[in-house]
Design a protein that fits this description.
By secondary structure, the protein is of the alpha/beta class. It folds into 2 domains: 142 residues, Bacterial extracellular solute-binding protein, family 7 (D-Maltodextrin-Binding Protein, domain 2, 3-Layer(aba) Sandwich); 135 residues, Bacterial extracellular solute-binding protein, family 7 (D-Maltodextrin-Binding Protein, domain 2), CATH 3.40.190. It is 46% helix and 13% strand. The strands form 2 sheets. Strands 5-4-6-3-7-9 form a 6-stranded mixed beta sheet, with helices on both faces. It has a 3-stranded antiparallel beta sheet with strand order 1-8-2. Helix 1 packs antiparallel against helix 8. The protein is globular, with a radius of gyration of 19 Å. It binds pyroglutamic acid. Pyroglutamic acid binds next to helix 6.
Length: 314
């Protein structure tokens, strides 16, 4: 089972526990060997390896495949879902369509877990888009790259496993990610600021090759699904619980953790609005259906007190 992130990351820890539960539930018949940190397949190769059956199961970030289908881009649209409860509502609204898109590629989704909210790391204070103009900013997906372009900066795709090196060698001077990956990459060694923008919560999925899954006997299939359901619940809980801890670690390393300055925030919200509109055009009727279901769910459950108050276009 190839996975992209370090052994000590909470996603990987969750997956290690999933693997051990599968072994227990199947009485040792089904053994999953986790190869973390892009060591077996690089982050951007894992999906193809699972499709081709070179690896039976793997972990990917959904938005890494955003160029293949707009449904894979939904959870990286800035400010569409920027809290855990909104991210959960978005997942409930989109899950069946996302699963169907993976199914078309012969992949079965076992479970999905979000990253903590995404912010911007930089060497210098960022107050407005003028401060990022032309800056080389690290991206991990086509949607993130699009946002960086709209910010007037230059996106450079760097996988998490290569992030520390890219920062150390000056390939990029800023980064878009969570407090979690910022911590894993020891960002304080090169970067001084973390703007805790809380722009979106991208999700990873654990996918299994459908044919390989179908080849398992029934008790083993059921064990896999049972462990997967538990891993999803546990993963969402841990992600949310650990967010503050990660932010505290950045502060302890003397990073300046700040909200985005008002002018920058306004510009980013405008980019979110534009990217939402662009997405709706690309995603067609299916996209509109998911979007409407999500909006309705958010309006119903959070009414006045929601983070979506910032979304002036709603
Ligand atoms: N960490 C991953 C994806 C999003 C996140 O928080 C990364 O930066 O590659």
């Amino acid at each position: 089972m190839p996975t992209p992130y370090p052994v000590s990351n909470f996603h990987t820890e969750n997956i290690a526990r999933f693997a051990s539960e599968v072994a227990t539930l199947t009485g040792g018949q089904l053994q999953i060997t986790v190869h973390a940190n892009g060591a077996l397949y690089r982050a951007n190769e894992i999906k193809r390896a699972v499709r081709g059956g070179q690896a039976q199961i793997g972990e990917i970030i959904i938005s890494g495949a955003a160029n293949e289908d707009p449904l894979f881009a939904l959870d990286t649209i800035p400010f569409l879902a920027s809290s855990y409860s909104e991210a959960q509502a978005l997942w409930q609204a989109s899950r069946s369509k996302v699963e169907e898109r993976f199914a078309r590629q012969g992949l079965k989704v076992l479970f999905s877990v979000p990253w903590p909210p995404q912010g911007i790391y930089a060497k210098v204070a960022l107050n407005s888009l003028a401060d990022v103009k032309g800056m080389k900013i690290r991206s991990y997906s086509p949607t993130v790259a699009r946002m960086i372009e709209l910010m007037g900066a230059q996106p450079v795709t760097v996988q998490a496993a290569d992030l520390s090196q890219a920062l150390a060698t000056g390939v990029v001077s800023a980064n878009v990610t969570s407090a979690s990956t910022g911590y894993d990459a020891q960002s304080w060694e090169q970067l001084s600021y973390y703007f805790d923008v809380q722009a979106w919560l991208p999700k990873n999925v654990v996918i299994v090759n459908q044919q390989q899954f179908d080849g398992l006997d029934r008790p083993n299939r059921e064990a896999l699904l049972k462990a997967a359901a538990a891993a999803e619940l546990r993963g969402w809980k841990t992600s949310e619980e650990k967010t503050q801890w990660y932010v505290e670690q950045l502060k302890a390393k003397k990073m300046k953790v700040l909200p985005a300055a008002a002018e920058l925030q306004k510009a980013l919200l405008g980019i979110g609005e534009r990217m939402t509109r662009e997405w709706l055009v690309q995603a067609g009727a299916d996209g509109q259906q998911v979007y409407d279901a999500y909006r309705q769910a958010v309006k119903k459950s959070f009414s006045n007190a929601c983070a979506c108050a910032a979304r002036l276009w709603w």
